[in-house]
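Appendix B: complex inputs.
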Amino acid sequence: MRVLAIVPAYNEARNLPGTLAALRRAAPGCDVCVVDDGSTDATARVASRLGATVLREPVNLGIGGAVQTGYRWAEARGYDVAVQVDGDGQHDPAWLAALIEPIARGEADLVVGSRFLPGAGEGFRSTPVRRAGIRYLALFLRLRCGVRVTDPTSGFRAASRRAIELFARRYPSDYPEPEAIAVAARAGLRVAEVPVAMTERQHGRSSIDAWRTLYYLVKVSLALLLLPVRETARREEEA
Amino acid sequence: MIPEPILAPRLQLFAVGVLLVLFGAVVRMVRRHQLNLRDSLLWLLSTGAGLVVAIFPELLTRFSDLLGIQVPSNALFALAFVYLLGNLLVANIAISASASRVRRLAQECALLRAELEELRGAKGPPPA
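Resulting structure:
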């Protein structure tokens, strides 16, 4: 089974060495591609020096566009599984094997790493206000798409070949995580969750500051409310 | 008795002048490839309509009577408002379409760049 780790990175030159080293330690057999989302620092240079494939976007597309670039690479290169791991060190690659397992067993197409499942341990769990927002989004997802997840905003997730093909064609932009779950569920993919622990980012600030949390909730609510046109998981094969 | 003109001749002349300049500017931009013909169409049409109304203001009176609007200028404001909203929506649709094209293009660029680097790496560094 060929596994690709997709590491979206925007100005993460300082965090990347740690993240990539941890990835190599935890998953020596998996290929790593860093998506440099139009960084202005040495992100691309650092990543390529550390032996990762670098997908360098000429302009900043935001996390949604960057992650999709990774999925398109995974699709073109025929990977069986793609795992999203943030470049900022929040996601500990030690949990990678657990994330892939349901896909390897053929039980799921999209596996979300959740901080709120039993067994996740005492990691970084965000502020109480955001936790309330996360619970609200989880409820919304359950009512609207019938998916049961506890951590819909988690960007630590694994995708099967079917999910890779779907996301290569359609991936939301602008706080895409909860919406991507909806896209997958509506395409008939099986969504599962496994417990993971996260750490607070080491350098720099999270891309979501207090003011944007509200925009995040409004945007994602609207997206889930409108639910874009249903997408089929596989393109119709030509007869 | 001659009825009071709807538009003072001086104002009428001024309006026609402004509209002609606008019309000329749009035509000029199209000819210099600064504006698509397709995108210019709405502007040319609206400026043309403005000219017609400026030259024959009675049309506006008739239109406002038809809709039951008491003051003809209000009919004009309402029309202009709706027209601008429509234009704004058209522009927004175009921006959205452009944004998703830019996204696709940037992603394609990233993938091609990686392919290229891989090929170069396989062949060794390019000669200096």
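Residues 72-123 of chain B form the longest helix (52 residues).
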